[in-house]
Amino acid sequence: MFDTVNPYHAGYGTTEGLASAPFAGRKAPFARLYARMFDPVNTGAILFMGRKHSGKSALLLNTDAVFKETAVGIYVPMRELLLENEVQWLTGLADAITTSLVDAGFTLSRLSQLDPLGDKPRDWLEINFLPQIFGALKRKLLLLIDDADWLLAAVKTGRLPADSFSYLLSLTKKYEDLHVALALDSDYEDDLPAFAPLVAPNDVLRLTNLAADESQWLLQAPVHGLYTVPDEVATSIHRVVGGAPGLVQHFGYELFRRWETYPELNVFTLEDVKALSPSIYLYNEPDYRALWERLTVNERLVLTAISDIVYNDPLGQITPARIQSWLVDTDFPLDVTAINATLRSLEYREIVLPTTEGISLRASLMQSWLLENARLGRRTAATPAAASAAPVERPPGLAGLATPRVLRTLAVILAVMIIINVIAYAWVNGGTPTTPTALEPTVTLVNPP
């Protein structure tokens, strides 16, 4: 058994150990945050927005290490705070600041002499608490508010004052060394205006997937000297997961575990990537399903078309015209204009990638999920398009019956079989055209001799 601890983050369920896990990329967000801390005019917050598991928490948790010479980062996980009223909110904020500074080695002996918080938490924070903090700190203080949607929900439901975001902005204006950064899931993108005036539209930074070289570093550098992940293997992993930060991290975690089990495995190969991909797929399957449920009808239609085209012609070029042609043979045709608009939306979501060779899915794991789950329902006169485009559960053995074109063909065949059975039944009964009470078409599979 090795004494070396797996450096990668184990899973999605917790932020425990995330601060010490290897971290790649994000130079632009850090640069933007650094510039804001030294901006003498603009004191508003920077908001990092991204999909689930896009590395928002990891970014906040690594901010302290990046700015350790100029600022102290205070990580504030909103999910873990009580937010029933403002006293709880500001008390939780003060506790997070105090705990972080004590862990960083700062002496805060004067805090024990502070008056009780009382029924005026804002006065206590501004008059008693923050002056003592900045007196001991002598550097910038950066509040890193994670899961900002929880804070927003408390404001919207009236548990916190309606001016809570304005109040945070006033604190950054009153204390020039106080700065705020927030992280928000992209599911709440439509709620961004509610963060005003603390966050201006131009101060929202969207976190994208890792570039190929960033994925490569994340898979290679932390394990240098233990085992080797060749460039082609790192590139393959990047393509399998599309550069999704959480999945690259988890692939690294699984590679390390595989090396612990087989220590003679000093160099990983493409076969190892193939062997580990199913476990990565199962790990992320709930996220793919949640993503699918948030897609629009047109996005589902286009992805279903792309998935089927790739499956039947892996080397063929996918274009809007080809997608249109595929959809013409279904009950859900779209014109090229609508398809192009949908592709732009899917590109923004980092699901598809336009290239000089045509349109492709960013992650091959997403292709696997679509093949198993993306099905077009049948549209009827009473069924709206939004409902009929929902995925239809199908037995695993019927994967080839994915399109309505095939279903219509089967319906014709079954209808013909019913007519033949009726005629045969009438002939057997002396030509009496009576209908059997339980006539059901059957399909018999016959093995060739």
What does this molecule look like?
The chain has 449 residues and is of the alpha/beta class. 48% of the residues lie in helices and 8% in strands. The protein has helices spanning 27-37, 56-66, 86-103, 121-137, 148-156, 164-174, 212-220, 231-241, 245-261, 270-294, 297-312, 320-328, 336-348, 364-373, 385-388, 404-428; strands at residues 46-50, 71-77, 140-146, 178-185, 204-206, 352-355, 358-361. The chain has a five-stranded parallel beta sheet, sandwiched between helices. A hairpin with a 2-residue loop joins strand 6 and strand 7 (358-361). Helix 12 (320-328) packs across helix 13. It is globular and about 70 Å long.
Any descriptors?
disordered C terminus, alpha/beta, Arc Repressor Mutant, subunit A, single chain, 4 domains, two-stranded antiparallel sheet, 16 helices, globular
Largest sheet: 5 strands, parallel
Task: Determine the strand fraction and express it as a percent band.
Answer: 5-15%
Write down the domain tally. 4
Helix content: 40-55%
Class by helix and strand content? alpha/beta
Order of strands across the biggest sheet?
A: 2-3-4-1-5
In total, the number of strands is 7
Mean pLDDT value? 83
Under CATH, the topology of the largest domain is which? Rossmann fold
Rounded to an integer in angstroms, the radius of gyration calculated over CA atoms is: 29 Å
Q: Which CATH top level class of the largest domain fits?
A: Alpha Beta
Order of helices and strands: HEHEHHEHHEEHHHHHHHEEHHH
Number of helices: 16
Which CATH-level-2 architecture of the largest domain? 3-Layer(aba) Sandwich
